Amino acid sequence: MIKSKYLITGLLGFLLISFPAAINSQDEFVYEYKIGPSDLLQLTVIGFDDLNRQYRVSEDGSINLPYLGETEVGGLTRGELEDKVSRILQEKNFIKDPQVSVHIVEYMSKRIYLLGAVENTGPYELLGRMTLLKLLSQAGGLSPDAGNQIIVTRQLPDGEKTTLRIPVDELLLETNASLDIPLQPDDIINVPADKIVFIYVTGQVNNPGALEVRSSNIPTLLRAIAKAGGFAEKAAKGRVRIKRTNETGEEIEIKVDVGAIMKGKEKDVQLQADDVIIVPEKWF
Questions:
Q1: Among the three residues 106, 127, 160, which one is the final residue of a domain in this structure?
Q2: Are 114 and 102 in the same domain?
Q3: pLDDT digits (tens, 9 = 90+) for 154-203
Q4: Tally of domains in the chain
Q5: Is residue 284 included in any domain, yes or no?
Q6: Structural domain range at position 121
Q7: pTM above 0.70?
Q8: Which of 47, 64, 46 is nearest to 55 (CA)?
Q9: Taking Cα atoms as reference points, which of 267, 224, 264, 216 lies closest to residue 244?
Q10: Are residues 206 and 275 in the same domain?
Q11: How far is residue 234's CA from residue 154's CA, in Å, rounded to a whole number?
């Protein structure tokens, strides 16, 4: 209960700080959209065919129009750009009552980025009101190795970054609507993979072999032995060995007195992926 309370409190703070008022329709969004670098624009002027083509907005926020030269368009809405081109054409006496239309073909400057364990990663255009569930649906859903949380990273107006961790089960299975957050430009949504890894238990246990576990839930030594059916009758609990490959590729061996762990005299050992546990036979 306490954990849920803090989760919701943090979420509300995230929403209040980060999210502007939602726009109700895609048409309204398209009109209010501020043109930015790399956007692709289609300009049409009735009676002035030389201008009628597509223009890619440069990094400095301008386009190069025939006869009109470099024209600043960054930060303008579609309607504002239509008015600007119309005004310039009239001022230069190219056409008396220009009918100008601007269509935004590609919204390259208003994107979100989806990473990790989903079927289709990559940048997604942010058209209209996009929520986390809508994005995951567009991406084809989570992949089988998806972990148990989704991480949303956002840059705030003051330049600081904030991160929200959303539990997958609460979002998808419990359908907690408060977690289906609206997204905004440049959000980075990461679904960390929770890969299947193996722990190997050999020797004097009842069910030796490979244990298949998730990377987020690798067991301790005692739990791994329990998963392998427990110690066999002839197990030497005080001489258990763990073979492990370290970060440099060197194989190391860890000797453990499991009997002492079971009595609470020593701390249980946290295993790592690909560890090999060897339980030798007693000496008589």
A1: 106
A2: no
A3: 887 677 888 889 999 888 888 888 888 888 888 999 999 888 899 999 99
A4: 3
A5: no
A6: 110-191
A7: no
A8: 64
A9: 224
A10: yes
A11: 57
Residues 175 and 186: their CA atoms lie apart, in Å, by 25
Are residues 148 and 221 located together in one domain of the fold? no
- Give the tokens for residue 189: 């949504």
- Interval 16-73: pLDDT, tens: 444 443 333 333 333 367 888 888 999 999 988 999 999 999 999 999 999 999 999 9
The answer on 170 and 126 residing in a single domain is yes
Amino acid, res. 44: T
CATH number at residue 187: 3.10.560.10
